[in-house]
Design goal:
CATH superfamily of the largest domain: Glycosidases
Structural class: alpha/beta
Distance between the termini: 7 Å
Strand content: 15-25%
Shape: globular
Order of helices and strands: HEEEEHEHEEEEHEHEHEHEHEEEEEEEE
Helix content: 10-25%
Number of strands: 21
Largest sheet: 8 strands, parallel, barrel
Strand order of the largest sheet: 4-5-6-7-10-11-12-13
CATH topology of the largest domain: TIM Barrel
């Protein structure tokens, strides 16, 4: 601990940002498909399917004709809002070994592809100054679904109107948002949120809204309520003139996904719709599909770690020169994992210095999926370079004893 304290102090003197985090570890996880008998929320916010953690990597609002894109994108299911579910829809998912999150329908209770029920889409969204549904109505709906089918979790899909920054101001004051959304949270076992900085706002310099929304949601509803993040994948919003629309790059999609994950999301839902110049419910081309598949493959490999909960071990991450970053640390299977993203919105490159209790001078740190290692320095820290929106995943052995 003395070495850690000394290192942190030196970093502060150098003007480097220092953050400490804590938490606990958990057993393994799986994202492989299995016929669903039950679903529930796990101890760290992960979705449990038949008692086993699953990290959803899903598509949003897709008809069965789009299910064949699941393999190309590396998806394991679909989240489908609407009025009611249908057996045909869930059968089509099961035939492809995919999970479904759908509106309640008593006719499909117990279906093997049904992993969660959905509340009506964005009940909090204001229409003519009034929400589509009140918090009490949403809570009552959750209670009714739970009585009809206690074997499945219920997901509540929120609009981005809960965000506290001025750009997302509506008729609600900040205090009203805090009160309203704490009440809305009673209506779901799991929440989702969506904010599309490029698709809807044409603001590529504000893709960090994805992380900010996660933080706002946790601030409002508390750290114990799990949530999934919806991620934009392209252009085509009616809110942006066609000649001004900017596509979302794979690097930006990856950054948004990992900002969500490092800020607590336990599932990812991809928004693939294009409305102009012509409608398509699935707009990504082959190159973008391949890029998203690679993102999802990396997430899938790290799903057991991501769903294990933050480590209790003291960790220091220092962003040299004011570099903005988004990161999380996990301890799983006797190893410490750090997932670090360069989230600097000015797209600067930079260097990050990392230290953790239990690292030994001279030991090797694995840089996951990059076929390289880094040697720990004498003071128990190691450093690495990050390009714009760069992502590095680290794994290392650490001493068994913890403070």
């Amino acid at each position: 601990m003395r070495r850690m304290a000394g290192l942190a102090a030196r970093m502060v003197l150098l003007g480097i940002a220092v953050i400490l985090i804590g938490g606990c570890a958990d057993p393994g996880a799986s994202i492989g498909w299995q016929p669903v008998k039950t679903s529930a929320v796990g101890p760290h916010g992960g979705l449990l399917v038949n008692g086993r953690p699953v990290l959803p990597l899903m598509g949003f609002y897709q008809s069965p004709k789009s299910f064949d894109h699941a393999a190309a994108m590396g998806l394991n299911g679909y989240l489908m809002p609407g009025k009611t579910a249908s057996r045909e829809y869930l059968d089509a998912l099961a035939a492809r070994k995919l999970y479904g999150m759908v509106p309640f329908d008593a006719e499909v209770v117990g279906h093997e592809a049904l992993v969660a029920w959905l509340q009506p889409h964005e009940p909090d969204a204001l229409v003519d100054g009034k929400p589509r549904s009140t918090p009490d109505e949403v809570a009552a709906a959750l209670e009714a679904i739970g009585k009809a089918d206690p074997s499945r979790s219920v997901v509540l899909d929120l609009s981005p109107q809960f965000m506290l920054r001025a750009e997302f101001a509506t008729d609600r004051t900040e205090q009203q948002k805090r009160d309203d959304y704490a009440a809305y949270a009673r209506g779901g076992d799991i929440l989702t949120y969506n904010v599309y900085p490029i698709w809807l706002h044409n603001r590529p310099e504000r893709i960090d809204w994805v992380a900010e929304a996660a933080d706002d949601l946790r601030t409002i509803v508390g750290p114990q309520k799990p949530f999934f993040a919806m991620i934009e994948t392209g252009k085509g919003s009616k809110a942006v003139p066609v000649d001004q629309q900017r596509d979302v790059s794979i690097d930006e999609i990856r950054a948004e996904v990992w900002m969500a994950l490092t800020h607590g999301a336990t599932g990812i839902v991809y928004f693939t719709h294009q409305f102009v110049p012509a409608f398509s419910e699935f707009a990504p081309d082959a190159a973008k599909q391949a890029g998203i598949r690679a993102i999802n493959a990396q997430i899938a490999r790290q799903a057991p770690v991501l769903l294990s909960g933050p480590t209790e071990r003291p960790v220091v991450v220092a962003f040299v020169g004011g570099l903005e970053a988004s990161w999380t640390a996990r301890e799983y299977g006797g190893r410490l994992y750090l997932f670090v993203l360069n989230a600097d919105m000015s797209r600067r490159s930079g260097r990050v210095s990392i230290a953790a209790e239990g690292l030994r001078p001279g030991q090797s740190v694995e840089v996951i999926d990059e076929h390289r290692t880094i040697t720990v320095e004498r003071d128990g820290s190691f450093s690495d370079d990050f390009g714009p929106l760069g992502l590095h995943l680290y794994a290392m052995d650490v001493a068994a004893d913890k403070p």
